[in-house]
Amino acid sequence: MRYFFYHILGLFITSLLFAFNPSYFPPLYKNPKQPIDKRVRDLLSRMTIEEKVGQLSTLLGWEMYAKESGHITASDRFKNAVKTGHIGMLWATLRADPWTKKTLETGLSPEEAAKATNALQRYMLDSTRLGIPLLLAEECPHGHMAIGTTVFPTAIGQSSTWNPMLIQQMAQTIALETRAVGGHIGYGPILDLAREPRWSRLEETYGEDPVLSAKMGAAMVRGFQGTDLKSGKNILSTLKHFTAYGMPEGGHNGSSVSIGLRELYQSYLPPFQAAIQAGALSVMTAYNSIDGIPCSANPLLLKEILRNQWHFKGFVVSDLGSISGLKDSHHTAETAVQAAAQAIHAGLDADLSGYGYGPSLLKALKDGWVTESTIDTAVSRVLYQKFALGLFENPYVDEKKIKSIVRTPTHIALARKVAQESIILLKNQNQLLPLSKSLKNIAVIGPNADNLYNQLGDYTAPQSEDNIVTVLEGIKAKLGTSSNIHYVKGCAIRDTSNADIKGAVAAAEKAEAVIVVLGGSSARDFKTSYQETGAAEVKAAEGVVSDMESGEGFDRSTLNMLGKQLELLKAIQQTGKPIVLVAIKGRPLDLNWAQAHIDAIVDAWYPGQEGGNAIADVLFGDYNPAGRLTVSVPKAIGQLPVYYNYKNPTKHDYVEVDAKPLYPFGYGLSYTTFAYADLNIQLNEEAEDFKLTVSFKIKNTGAYAGDEVVQLYVRDEVSSVVTPIKQLKDFRRVHLKKDEETTVNFVLRASDLKLMDANMKWLTEKGKFSILVGSSSDHIQLHSEVVLQKDYHPIH
Fold this sequence. Notes:
Blueprint: H1 2-20, H2 36-46, H3 49-55, E1 57-60, E2 65-68, E3 71-74, H4 76-85, E4 89-91, H5 110-127, E5 135-139, H6 155-159, H7 164-180, E6 185-190, H8 210-225, E7 236-242, H9 261-268, H10 270-277, E8 282-285, E9 289-290, E10 293-294, H11 299-309, E11 315-317, H12 322-328, H13 336-346, E12 351-352, H14 359-366, H15 372-388, H16 409-422, E13 424-428, E14 441-445, H17 471-479, E15 484-488, H18 501-509, E16 513-519, H19 565-573, E17 579-584, H20 592-597, E18 600-603, H21 611-619, E19 674-685, E20 690-700, E21 706-716, E22 727-736, E23 741-748, E24 755-756, E25 762-763, E26 767-776, E27 779-788
Parallel strand pairs: 1-4, 1-12, 4-5, 5-6, 6-7, 7-8, 8-11, 14-15, 14-16, 16-17, 17-18
Antiparallel strand pairs: 2-3, 9-10, 13-18, 19-20, 20-23, 21-22, 21-26, 24-25, 26-27
Helix pairs in contact: 2-15, 3-15, 7-8, 7-16, 8-10, 12-13, 13-14, 16-21, 17-21, 18-19
């Protein structure tokens, strides 16, 4: 009886508390024990239409904090954006570069970055009606693009490792550093196939092949997102750019793309599908159009393929300003209101810019272009990820732990390993490499020999000089005081007004060996002008010639080495000294003369902060290079496109030059040699699928331990629609000691050999397939055939 009395009394008191203070009981959306779907619905029911539209706006974040005398606070601009726009997301809050005008002094250190994101989140929770935390998206293609973080090789170098597990480890590190300072989304990986080397952003891709790009992209997603988004160590992955962005007409960034629907499905979509199957929870639309439909307003891409066919559960975000581009660039919308309506009806959820949706989307709703239920769908997808990340329970980061997480010795060592594995040996005449460490006089020459920013690539934050090891510094650290190292820059990448070729030749003449470091640069500077989208303007101020010839916005009409670089190389070659050319660059360049006249050529792409050490490791034999090209390098611009897996018929030669590239896809040399033998094919056909096992032996027959990248290609000998002359299906990077032998096994299924037939249905056709095993697309060492006895029907 007493228990009953106290129970009734408790209910009575609780009722009084609730009557006088309804906030005594927290709303359902703040209850972490409730399913996320219920929390989303509850929160959505409490929001005004203005608050809903605000959740879809992703504003430029570097303007949203104030830094004064080391004190970090939310800026007045941020507070006004929250008050008037009810914003839910920021992009690049911690970014620093010449476009954002954030320097080492005005930007944020990792510790300051944590304070800034905490200040922004605190304002959202304490000063807004519903206390919805921010989603903070950051650029993370080869490291978090913020001051003081670890800088890895750019994506084209990452793929040149042919080592997805290593790239997954790298992505885990990037995610850890990003989440530690308050970021929640990493923009990356970029899954555009790079089949147009004149295009400015090739460095950001994994190359020209869909299978390699798919495996690298899936590895990046797994590394970013992990298995627990609430861990405080993982971030959402945003796939870029959906889709076919890397094959623009004429190489013009963002231009239209001329491909058919079958080619879209067979080549350009598979990397995105693989990344979504790996769990990717965000996708960014591309600037370009396909067959007349802008990607940011394409329901086939964003609804039918992404949602209906692939069952994508995340949210879609525009590229910066691409919703407005429907009106201003593509001219498919007459007004900003129509542009907003086109985008959201197509399935584009979030606006990267803050001006594509916002008032325009509200006006579209008012005028009847859009329904509130359509807006609710988009908002729900964004809110879901905020709950999934645990931001309502843990919106802040631990400012005291930053130093033990960001840019640690372990992370720096990993950057060196990725750089080592990315380096490609293109030529090694008479085994000039590796160089002897006992050389007494070495000349190090060239514009990229001691330029820290030129070896980092685009989307890189300002760096303290002691953070980056240049090639010159790496060689000095390797050899110490035992060798005399003479450095002469010789010339710039593009500027021809201040060359010192005579001084470079004089240094070469005194040397026993010469290391010439040439190439290109994607290094942004404060003298360059930038578009509203962040892309650099090619035209600089009068009298200013930057090194930049690659990176977003810097499309090329040729692939020549610019400035006086080739003149410098030819002059040094005339000395007769042994020469090693190291190419640091973001796209394939014309190396015809070098291939014909220079003793050794090393391709390092943009190798990141540890590039100098990694290159020195390769040059002096402490690391045996095994990187392989992931793009074909043309002999002439007139050969383009020159990607290896072109469709039948076989290409014929030109009048001036043959049709083969200078270096084919998959190419790369080693300090050792490998022998392939005993190819064995086993086919087990089942009712709905088959298991095709390809096995062979590989042996290290040379004098050094080293890695070989074994590559499996397939050719469909007779098909109902035209197919590629060969297509990579699998690969593996194998380490073997001297005289060591191992057996490599690959397994293919029906989905690996499928095509899209004349009825636009996936089909694996019966008939003969050639099985090709080799060390590059153009160096097949083992060949066999297999015959399928029946057709198969893979779902996708």
